[in-house]
Amino acid sequence: QTEGRRCLRRVGLAAKRHTEMIQTLMAIADSVHVSEVFCPPRCTAQCHRFGLSAGLAMDLRSGWNFDKAEDRSRARKHVEEEKPYLLVGSPECKAFSMMHHMNKHLPDYAEKLAQGLAHLKFVCELYVHQHSQGRIFLHEHPWGATSWWSKCVRRVLALPGVDVAYMDQCM
Q1: What stretch of H or E contains 45?
Q2: DSSP states along 53-102
Q3: pLDDT digits (tens, 9 = 90+) for 68-117
Q4: Per-residue pLDDT averaged across 151-158, rounded?
Q5: Whole-angstrom Cα distance, residue 100 to residue 112?
């Protein structure tokens, strides 16, 4: 559990909640603890170290293309059926970066922004579902990304019990 506490500190959870979070995850032993969307197996690949059950890591590299309606539908169905306690979402953030914003004059700017927003709306839809089922989610985006100000992220942040934790990923 010491490794688990260290891991939870890294994601910015308050010290008093470390034990509570580990106990909650361990109490749901007969189900999936962690699934990921828009990222290769990172968190799910580490589940075994903490005695947790890994679900799917849904990402382009593992055959999921969320530009396709059928893959979004499959992912929704999968999350509904798998019922992961924690859903980690890491949609690509470059459309929301300061560098992208400085390149508004480029011909593909609007297309990349639209694609980024579509992915962001989809992952937020999954977060709302998680929340409605009493389960949790982690949204991973750089603090300076403009996505934090999008309507869909703002709606998710306004849900009861949703907290924001800032952490430096360059530890």
Answers
A1: helix 43-46
A2: PEEEEE-GGGT--TTSHHHHHHHHHHHHHH--SEEEE----GGGSHHHHH
A3: 999 999 999 999 999 999 999 999 888 888 888 788 888 888 999 999 99
A4: 96
A5: 9
Tell me 136's DSSP state: E
Number of C-beta neighbours around residue 71 at 10 A: 16
Please give the distance of CA 20 from its chain centroid, rounded to a whole number.
21
Closest CA to 118 of 96, 143, 86: 96
Amino acid at 56: L
**Strand, coil or helix: 31:** coil
- Which residues, in sequence order, are bridge partners of residue 88? 36, 138
Tell how strand 34-37 and strand 86-89 pair up: parallel
Say what the pTM is: 0.81
In single-letter form, the type of residue at position 162 comes to V
State the Cα–Cα distance between residues 115 and 121, nearest whole angstrom.
10
Confidence class for position 25, pLDDT limits 50, 70, 90 = low
What is the pLDDT averaged over residues 31-35? 85
Residue type at 124? C
